[in-house]
Write a structure and sequence with these properties.
- The chain is α+β, with helices and mostly antiparallel strands.
- The strands form four sheets. Strands 1, 2, 3, 4, 5, 6, 7, 8, 9, 10, 11 and 12 form a twelve-stranded mixed β-sheet that branches. Strands 17, 18, 19, 20, 21, 22, 23 and 24 form an eight-stranded mixed β-sheet that branches.
- Strand 22 and strand 23 form a beta hairpin.
- Keywords: Cell membrane, Membrane, Transmembrane, Transmembrane helix.
């Protein structure tokens, strides 16, 4: 019986080739998008779920009472204090010091010359308990004993192959940042992409332990502590124990007395933007994951609507077939099953095509999103289950109503070909579905226009500094003694206009915060300030504008420069009031001086974030970047001169640079990806909708062949006939726009709330989106309408 149903379904679909191809194309596009989005969602939800104790692993974070400031950092002495107190009852305690890369030197060995590398991937300094807490595949060795010793390193396989191509890396020595000689004790498989610890190298924590601060006044998101809770302990109880313990141990020794510890589940780290760590992957909110799931459902829904529209449009064409089957004894449910089999056949074939399309599209998606998603259908039970459920649900959703309509025809009426379009409350269901379909299309188009407008705003908004023609080079450590000779040598070439040394550029991902004392007050201020260290040339090179005072000089006296936001937070009514006021910060007032100037506010990070209080002062030991203003007409000469001077000053280090304006674009990389995805999904949704429109107009043309012939004989023009076919659908597209506009406005308003600096939503994106959709619909309908109008009226009048 089932075999006969499928055989009959196959014959029916072959007889209606154009109808079948349109349905398969629409369904294949929808299913392809849903599979790709499912793969992205599955990947994003899998972060660090492979650790056996994942449900009991927590990170210690710090929140500041009364301040909107959170950090994944923990104080440096805390892990050691906890261990001396029997871990506070925790099963394990581990600390990680992460860095965003390293200078690696590989000494000469026999016939192989010495080589140097700039390792861009994150590097993790971990202790022995790291391997008790986490379950990374680190090879056959038990590394706990090795990581109790200094100067030990484990390399990822890809990193080992890069440093020692064709050699066994175990036992070899590498030099880290020209400071430590590290012995390779093991090579581990590459870290999975779905982890918050994307380390290409693991180095024993004792290697750097003596060089790290050992007081309670320092917090860095590079330094994080993780604990494993016993089965019976809750996160709240654990947090109370940690805070009580810290208060008992340090009392007045802790200047960060407003710092309170909280525990964050390991499984929450990838989805929480409040505690974004320095070496972690870019977080993605649960709302964004839900949005991707919604987009997948919407696109699939659009494809199903296509199917329903085309199937019900074909209903009158198959009326006689239904009448004959009923006269021969077929029951309604047998006919329903027959038509559902046809739908199932189409959905299965569309799914087969989709699997091929996913294989082709996935590499491009991985490149766009910078992910490592693999698609292995037979080795992924969850994907197989998803495909099975999707085929089943799409078949039922898309096929049940058309099957019910077709099977419900009365035999006598069907055989007389007097079938009419099914209506609900006087409105054709097909019309409702077309409106729904194009509402979805226009919502996506409007959102795409507005996201693109926000991206253009990011690129064009003045940032408060000059970012053009600036080359930034990361400095090796311990370079403060070479600053002045290096500056002079660089400026000897006229292609280099100015040189500045600083902790970082005006706008960067390097954010350093701290408490401070204002005007000799007994207590520190109730807010923290963002700190930058920079020489006197910094202000001129980046063209920072002073609203009061002037820059400091490079002499030995300590002065401060603050921004206008900090001036307002300090309660000073005018910028001039700030000049001469005293600021101090750091242990034992390490940094103390008068305010020399107030600069106009500039953006220190992404436009998604507000401008924060900022303090800039001199500190050569803290300079980590060299910025050079160059003549872009002599760009190549300037870069060659930079490299030549660098090689002379730092022969053991790799010269690497970037243009400052390009680094700012990195702030909006996620938004740029969203923009691309919006455009792709909008295009696919429109394409699916156009396939449906084309099919509906083609069917209408076939049904009204004689009418077209008569109208042409009576003198109707091609334009008249095109309007005849198009006017009904134009009304539906316009109605869809009326529904889509407020929906899109709500969605984009909610999205823009995440950005402190954003566009105001005007009416032009809505008008352009409406016109674009109408134009696409007219072209789709017009092509088929003109084809019908150009047909020979004699042949049209002979048609049955």
């Amino acid at each position: 019986m089932i075999k006969m149903y499928f055989l009959t379904a196959f014959r029916s679909l072959v007889r209606n080739k154009s109808y079948s191809l349109l349905n398969i194309a629409g369904l294949a596009l929808g299913i392809t998008c849903s599979i790709l989005l499912f793969l992205v969602i599955q990947y994003q939800l899998s972060y660090d779920d492979f650790h056996q104790k994942a449900d009991r692993i927590y990170r210690l974070n710090v929140d500041f009472v009364g301040r909107d400031f959170h950090t994944p950092a923990s104080h440096y002495p805390l892990p050691a204090y906890m261990r001396t107190n029997d871990r506070l009852g925790f099963d394990a305690v581990t600390q990680i010091q992460g860095t965003a890369g390293a200078q690696i030197n590989v000494p000469a060995d026999g016939t192989r010359p010495a080589r140097k590398f700039l390792e861009d991937s994150s590097v993790g300094f971990v202790d022995a308990e790291f391997f008790e807490v986490f379950d990374f595949n680190t090879g056959p060795l038990d590394l706990r004993a090795y990581f109790k010793e200094p100067n030990v390193v484990v390399l990822e396989q890809a990193t080992a192959d890069k440093f020692f191509p064709g050699e066994n890396a175990v036992g070899k020595v590498i030099r880290y940042n020209n400071m430590y000689n590290l012995r390779v004790v093991s090579v581990m498989p590459d870290m999975p992409g779905n982890t918050e610890f994307p380390f290409s190298m693991l180095i024993s924590y004792p290697t750097i332990q003596n060089s790290l601060p050992d007081d309670w006044g320092n917090l860095s998101s590079d330094h994080q502590t993780f604990v494993v809770l016993p089965e019976h302990m809750s996160a709240g109880t654990a947090a109370e124990a940690v805070n009580s313990f810290v208060a008992q141990q340090v009392e007045d020794e802790n200047p960060n007395r407003q710092a309170v510890y909280s525990l964050q589940p390991l499984r929450d780290i990838h989805y929480n933007t409040d505690y974004f760590g320095a070496y972690a992957q870019t977080p993605i909110t649960k709302e964004m994951i839900m949005a991707m799931a919604a987009v997948a459902v919407i696109i699939l829904l659009t494809a199903c609507i296509n199917f329903i529209n085309l199937a019900t449009a074909q209903a009158t064409k198959r009326a006689k077939e239904v009448g004959v089957r009923k006269v021969l004894g077929s029951s309604q449910w047998q006919l329903v099953l027959q038509f559902l089999c046809e739908t199932l056949f189409l959905v299965m074939f569309a799914t087969f095509i989709s699997v091929i399309l996913v294989e082709l599209a996935l590499p491009y998606l991985n490149e766009l999103l910078e992910l490592e998603i693999a698609f292995s259908l037979l080795q992924d039970p969850l994907m197989l289950l998803f495909l099975f459920l999707q085929v089943l649900l799409v078949t039922l959703f898309a096929g049940f109503y058309p099957a019910f309509v077709l099977s419900n025809f009365k035999p006598i009426t069907a055989l007389k070909s007097r079938m009419s379009v099914q209506r609900l409350g006087g409105v054709s269901l097909r019309q409702v579905l077309v409106v729904l379909q194009f509402t979805i299309c226009q919502v996506l188009i409007i959102c795409t226009f507005l996201v693109s407008e926000q991206m253009a705003f990011f690129r064009s908004k003045p940032l408060g500094f000059n970012k053009e023609a600036v080359v930034v080079v990361k400095l090796p450590q311990q370079t403060n003694q070479r600053i002045q000779p290096l500056r002079q040598e660089l400026l000897n070439n006229p292609a280099v206009k100015n040189v500045s040394f600083a902790s970082d550029a005006p706008s960067s991902g390097n954010m350093s915060y701290g408490n401070f004392y204002f005007n000799h007050a007994a207590e520190d201020e109730d807010f923290q300030t963002h700190k930058k260290y920079a020489d006197a040339q910094y202000f001129d090179l980046f063209d920072l504008k002073f609203v009061a005072g002037k820059p400091y000089t490079n002499d030995s006296l300590q002065y401060m420069v603050i921004n206008d936001t900090m001036r307002r937070r300090l309660g000073l009514k005018t910028p001039e009031e700030a000049i001469g006021k005293h600021i101090s910060f750091g242990g034992d007032g390490q940094f103390a001086g008068a305010i020399a100037g107030v600069v106009a506010d500039f953006h220190q990070a992404s436009l998604a974030l507000p401008i924060e209080p900022l303090l800039i002062t001199k500190y050569p030991q803290g300079y980590g970047t060299l910025s050079a203003k160059i003549d872009m007409n002599q760009k190549q000469e300037a870069l060659q001169h930079l490299e030549k001077v660098w090689e002379k000053a730092y022969p053991n280090d790799v010269f690497s640079y970037y243009f400052f304006d390009e680094s700012i674009a990195e702030f909006y990389k996620d938004e740029a990806r969203q923009n691309v995805l919006f455009k792709v999904f909008s295009l696919i949704t429109i394409l699916i909708g156009c396939l449906g429109l084309y099919g509906l107009v083609a069917f209408m043309a076939a049904q009204r062949t004689k009418e077209v012939g008569i109208r042409k004989v009576m003198g109707a023009s091609i334009f008249n006939i095109a309007v005849l076919f198009s006017k009904e659908f134009i009304k539906l597209v316009l109605l869809a726009f009326v529904l889509a506009a407020p929906i899109a406005y709500y969605i984009i308003s909610h999205w823009l709330e995440d950005y402190t600096y954003r566009i105001s939503i005007g009416y032009w994106p809505f008008i352009l989106a409406g016109l674009a959709t109408l134009t696409i619909a007219l072209v789709t309908m017009g092509s088929k309408a003109v084809q019908a109008a150009l047909s020979n009226p004699v042949l049209s009048l002979k048609s049955e």
